[in-house]
Amino acid sequence: MAKNRSYELNIANKELAFQSEEKEKRTAELVLANRKIVVQNVEKEQRAVEKEERAAELVIANEELAYQNDEKEKRAAELLIANEELAYQNDEKEKRAAELNIANIELAYQNDEKEKRAAEFSIANKELAYQNKEKAKREAELSIANKELAFQSDQKEKRAEELVIANKELAYQNQVKEKRAAELVIANEELAFQNDEKEKRAAELNIANIELAYQNNEKEKRAAELSIANNELAFQNAEKEKRAAELSVANKELAFQNKEKEKRAAELIIANKELAFQNDQKEKRAQELDVANKELAYQNQVKEKRAAELVVANDELAFQNHEKEKRAAELNIANIELAYQNDEKEKRAAELIIANAELAVQNLDKEKRAAEKEKRAAELIIANEELAFQNDEKEKRAAELIIANKELAFQNDEKEKRAEELSIANKELLAFTYVSSHDLQEPLRKIQTFVSRIAESEGANLSEKGKEYFQRIMESAKRMQTLIEDLLAFSRVNTAERIFVSTSLDLIIEEVKTELKDTIEEKHAIIEATELCPANVIRFQFRQLIYNLIANALKFSRPDVPAHITIMSKIAKGSALKNDKLSPDKSYCHITVTDNGIGFESKFSERIFEVFQKLHDKEEYTGTGIGLAIVKKIVENHNGIITATSELGSGARFDIFIPA
Amino acid sequence: MHTARLTSDTSSEDSQHDLSRLLSMLLEHFNLLLADDDKDDCLFFRDALEELPVQAELTTVHNGEQLMQLLGESKDTLPHVLFLDLNMPRKNGFECLSELKLDDRLKSLPVIIFSTSFEQDVVNLLYKKGGQYYIRKPAEFSQLKNVILEALTLIAEGKTSQPDRDQFVITGRNPLAT
């Protein structure tokens, strides 16, 4: 553009130079004409005609001048167009600035979105923190559960040790085999119960592990979402950096265009200076023409008309020159305005540069903010990784717990096997006891029968001593029969089927009273059975228990005092029953059998429940020492406990606690 | 402890009742079968029977197979009652009772269990299997006579359908009382 413009100006200047040369030639011709007028005064009229022609030529010269003025006007118009272009470019720049403004607003909006996102992250972090707290709680609970398991394991180990000792005792103590076997059976039941509890606990732990795994999954999902959100943020930051880079490039282009405009303005200034120089030259030339005209006027004193016309012509030329000066001045003003506009544009460009710099600063701020957000995102990623690590640790811990549970289960299995083996051994022992007792009955019965036959049929032939001996044989045989029957009853208590039925104790007591009617009458006994509650019992066993206790109380009544037996029962919580072996939270049916008999020393309160343990001579009180052992076994079959309290001579009291 | 009260200590009405029962039994000629592997017990039974005022013919077998063979061969003449021991070689009393109750011809034969043992569970089982009565072999010879007499009296009265459970066990306490 600028080059074209300067090329046109060059051509215009050359044309002007050409026109000036033409004018000089013309002027030279006019001088020659004037000289001819001076020299050829004689041929005045002819010359007048020539002068007229000359005037016509002047008219033509004036027309040429007018043409030149037109050209100058065109040039001014072109300058106007150039200014309009500049104005258009300014408009474009303003539009560009407006676009930059919109871009800034968009950036501000994106920043708002980022802040919102950051707020969401903050909430997400709080949620994660809350979940971590929940996990910590859960962990604490698991820890407690593990401690409980460990405690139970300890208890089992202790119990197992006790079982081992019990087994050893079994091996060495043949006399107390039944008692120990009974304890083992109960121990086995307890173990089985504990195993059940542990299996339940293991199942609960399993469920807890599944829950943990589910929570971990949820957290991993959340972490993955956060990771995606971070990636989005990083992508948005990258987009903003690109946008800033584009803005930077746009600013550079604007700066380059401003420089180009400055160059163009400088070129226009040079062109204007050249025009001013040409005008100066023209003014000099006009002055020279004026001098020439004055000379001509002087030389043409005579020919005044002609001279006056020339003066007029010269005046016109002067006027034209004046007009040209005006025009040059206007162009000057226009150039000054252009220079001013250029200044303004430079100022504008400077402002744009400042604005760009500000934008660049703002972009830097945004980059900083983006960097902070990236940092925050990185921190969140680290936090997520930590959570993931903690989750891994918890999963590991859960896995360890599962393994520990499996080990416990395995140990339980082993113990169950051992318990089963012991149970089988016990059953074998009991079966042996039962079979041997059962088979002993037959030869004994035959001895008794033969003895009774001899006593009946041959009694008359026997001496008194012989009769007494036969009586002693029959008594011993009878005692052996009782022993065998009691032993059978004792072993039967272990082997018989156990069907628990809610039973009214009143009925059982009435049955027993009927059965013991003769003895009750003989001892003038009063049996008080009040405040009785129904109990969940193995009916025929419990009947035997009540029978044995009442029979026991009747047997050990004081000879001179009528027997008074009181039976009571009530349901109460373990915590209210003053016995360490009861579970405080469970309900028990508490049955007491109290008598006013001879009692026993308190040091025997445990021993009386052992098989074959007697406190009296058999002459004094008959019995095999099995009755209370059967009672204890029956109570244990009901998962209960029995205690005996007494002082010698002040009656006895039996407390039975069975689960209600 | 308790002895058979055949005559004394009864009111005149009871006396007459007992007398008529005794008469009906005395008129009966019992054909008895005892299955017991124990020779001594067979001897006691025979001796007791001889001392009782009844007309009875006793056949003994010593195991379950012999018993079932004998009953299978005797086409028309079944015994009035079978005293069956439980613990026998080759085929025990439980098996014999089950087989008898499955045989249409033999299931009406009254079976009185005659055993040393006295387990409630076992007694219940035998009652369910269709035993007529249960006798626990007593230790005293006099008591043995009592239980046999009571059993024969019940049979003589024609009580051959199964009694209530509480009447199942023959105690020999008072063989002539209901």
Multimer state: heterodimer
Task: Round the Cα radius of gyration of chain B to an integer and report it.
Answer: 16 Å
Largest sheet geometry of chain A: 5 strands, mixed
Number of helices of chain B: 6
In round numbers, the mean pLDDT of chain A is 85
> Over all CA atoms, what is the radius of gyration of chain A?
68 Å
**CATH level 1 class label of chain B:** Alpha Beta
Low-confidence stretches of chain B: 1-11
Query: How many β-strand runs of chain A?
Result: 7
Determine the fraction of residues in helical runs of chain A and give it as a percent range: over 70%
Mass-distribution shape of chain B: globular
Order of helices and strands of chain A: HHHHHEHHEEHEEHEE
Gap from first CA to last CA of chain A: 114 Å
Give a written overview of the molecule.
The complex is a heterodimer of chains A (660) and B (178). Chain A has nine helices and seven strands; from the N terminus they run αααααβααββαββαββ. In chain A, the strands form two sheets. A five-stranded mixed beta sheet of chain A has the order 2-4-5-7-6, with helices on one face. Chain A has helices at 2-39, 44-172, 177-299, 304-457, 464-495, 505-515, 517-522, 539-555, 627-637; strands at 500-503, 526-530, 535-538, 564-573, 587-594, 641-646, 652-659. Chain A has two domains: 2-412, no CATH class; 498-659, Histidine kinase-like ATPase, C-terminal domain (Heat Shock Protein 90, 2-Layer Sandwich), CATH 3.30.565. Chain A is of the alpha+beta class. The longest helix of chain B has 16 residues, at 12-27. Helix content of chain B is 42%, strand content 16%. The model of chain B is unreliable at 1-11 (pLDDT under 50). With 178 residues, chain B is of the alpha/beta class. Chain B has helices spanning 12-27, 39-51, 64-73, 93-102, 120-129, 141-156, and strands spanning 29-35, 55-61, 81-84, 111-115, 133-136, 169-170. Chain B has one domain (12-170): Rossmann fold (3-Layer(aba) Sandwich). Chain B is globular and about 45 Å long. In chain B, helix 2 links the parallel strand 1 and strand 2. In chain B, helix 2 packs across helix 6 and helix 3 (64-73) runs parallel beside helix 4 (93-102). Chain B has a six-stranded parallel beta sheet, with helices on both faces. The A-B interface holds A 438, 441-442, 444-446, 448-449, 452-453, 456, 477-478, 481, 492, 496-497, 540 and B 38, 40-41, 44, 47, 116-117, 119-121, 137-142, 144.
